[in-house]
Design a protein that fits this description.
Blueprint: E1 2-7, E2 10-12, E3 18-26, E4 31-39, E5 46-52, E6 57-59, E7 67-72, E8 77-82, E9 91-99, E10 104-106, E11 110-114
Parallel strand pairs: 2-11
Antiparallel strand pairs: 1-3, 3-8, 4-5, 4-9, 5-6, 7-8, 9-10, 9-11
């Protein structure tokens, strides 16, 4: 059994910053990717950023240059540093873990609200 515990969401003003964390625990044998998705009301869940076991990354075009994903492999923890936040970044952010055997796990979600 694998658990993903997210933290770091909250309310921030436009232009501000937040850092999300996601710690994975349990029977984790081989991680392929860890990442972050988000879902705003009325929208589908979308990829924000992900990092592969070899540390390569990819980002949604809407967050490039503002968000940075990183990973502490020893702790099975992934981070998302979000800078220059905009109201359109408001969403529930979900941590995602994809194992090399093709099994996917999701966190419970953390709310990020960007508003003045």
């Amino acid at each position: 059994q694998v658990q993903l515990v997210e933290s770091g969401g909250g309310l921030v003003q436009p232009g501000g910053s937040l850092r999300l964390s996601c710690a994975a625990s349990g029977s984790i044998f081989s991680v392929y990717t860890m990442g972050w998705y988000r879902q705003a009301p009325g929208n589908e869940r979308e990829l924000v950023a992900r990092i592969r076991s070899g540390s390569s990354t990819n980002y949604a075009d809407s967050v490039k240059g503002r968000f940075t994903i990183s990973r502490d492999a020893a702790k099975n923890t992934v981070y998302l540093q979000m800078n220059s936040l905009k109201p359109e970044d408001t969403a529930v952010y979900y941590c995602n873990l994809l194992l090399s055997i093709g099994v996917v796990y999701w966190g419970q979600g953390t709310q990020v609200t960007v508003s003045s």
